[in-house]
Amino acid sequence: MSKDIKIGLFGFGTVGRGLFELLRDVPTANVSIERICVRDASRDRGVTANFTDSAEDIFNDPNINFIVELIDDAEASFEIVSRAIKLRMPVVTGNKKMLAHKLPELIKLQKEYESTLLYDASACGSIPVIRNLEEYYDNDLLISVKGILNGSSNFILSKIFNDGMSHTAALDLARKEGFLESNPTLDLDGWDSLFKLVIIGVHAFGVYVDPSKVFNYGITHMNDDDIRFAREKDRRIKLVAHVEKLADNRLVMCVIPQLISRNKYIYSVEDEFNGVVIKGLFYDKQFMFGRGAGARPTSSAVLSDITACLYNYKYEYKKMRHSASLPKFTDDITFRVYIRYTDPVDLGLLHFEEIYESYSSKGYNYMVGRVSLKSLHASREALNSRKVFLAAYPTD
User: Structurally, how many domains does the chain consist of?
Assistant: First the structure.
């Protein structure tokens, strides 16, 4: 593309403002923001910029040759991104919810219109996990990708376990620091991690799995009893996303809190940082670590996507080409979980294949046992409504 990138920016929230300030404070040759589309162009935002509330002002501006979309509305995001692709304008997006639901369609559009869509910033903040999966792990040696993909929930858990803060106080601090989505349930209930995991699955294994098929559970219902249990077992609770190819060419995916032991890499990933463990045949485990939330880390990843277009970089989706040999998604596996419940009726929501440990008192009840991922998925809404907390509890 042209060596001068003239950006039409959609969105001026945490990341959009972060990108604007990054380019203002650390000028990047050949890259500038021409116009910014927001909901209300009349509102004073404390900066001097060319604001508009009309998408047409951006798409009809002859000086603009690049689109950056950083809004939190998934439907509007798709309209912007698909329109840019059809106009053969390179586009960068950070909207992981939109990508997780629309990626197959966007891949087809890119091929049809020979255009470029980049979104490394959507997955792990400042960690270039997508580009690494595309370029370095572009073979069949990859076994699994596992880690902390949501810096906001990790920040909250760090403050609870390390600083003794209450869940509410940690949540308020995360909001104050600008780490939370506008809808915090996206972070706390594991949706943000789920959307990122779906995107990663495409680039890691060439398999797109609709988000509705993947089990996710968050930390909203975690309480002091669960924290005390973790400490007694010398573990920490982390919200973990996991995709793995099994030996029989099946693929499993889930997002769930885990009771992590000290010997795991992600045990020591703290605050708003993300940590990703990539495991493969012959090279065993590799660990990527970096900030996963906040204006500057995420906007720096957006800028990396932008400047990559100066060199005509694009995702090739190499693994998706070999459709006959791709692993098949399944949730037909079992694993050990900890479940804290209030009413014995809650246990009826799950079928325990084995029970290893149980405790019951007037104010605290829990069970440790083996359940199927399929049964967890089928009972997700009921478990949530009854405010049950559950966590994967690996033996090591």
Answer: 2
